[in-house]
Amino acid sequence: MDKKTKIDPEKLEAAASRLRAIGHPMRIAIIELLEQRPLNVTEIYTKLEIEQAAASHHLNILKNKNMLVSRRRGRQIFYSIRNHALTDSIDCINRCNE
To answer: CB within 8 A of 61, min separation 6: which ones?
Structure first.
């Protein structure tokens, strides 16, 4: 049976916006780090060997697209993946490219 899929332009644009946000190699690397455990910005820029400003910039982009959550502990802010829908989406994309 042929089933036609209805495209919701708003949902499609939201998905495209998120894909653009994760399309940068540094943001992919940040997501991979955060899959394991929450990290603060110092841990992130140290592990990735980038400047603190660059790490903050990429974290803000991901956070603004609702992909990351930040929680303050004392003077530090820890970042984590908002939910596993993000990593599930990445897994889906990876399967499409096999």
So the answer is: 21, 24, 27
Domain range enclosing 33: 10-96
DSSP string covering 45-73 = HHHHT--HHHHHHHHHHHHHTT-EEEEEE
Kindly state whether residue 92 falls inside one of the protein's structural domains.
Answer: yes
pLDDT of 8 reads 82
Whether residue 1 is contained in a domain is answered as no
Per the document, the length of the chain is: 98
Confidence of residue 85 (pLDDT cuts 50, 70, 90): low
The dihedral through the CA atoms of 31, 33, 35, 37 has a sign that is negative
pLDDT score for 1: 41
CATH code of the domain covering residue 80: 1.10.10.10
What total of structural domains would you count in the chain?
Answer: 1
| 14-33: pLDDT as tens digits | 878 888 888 899 999 999 99
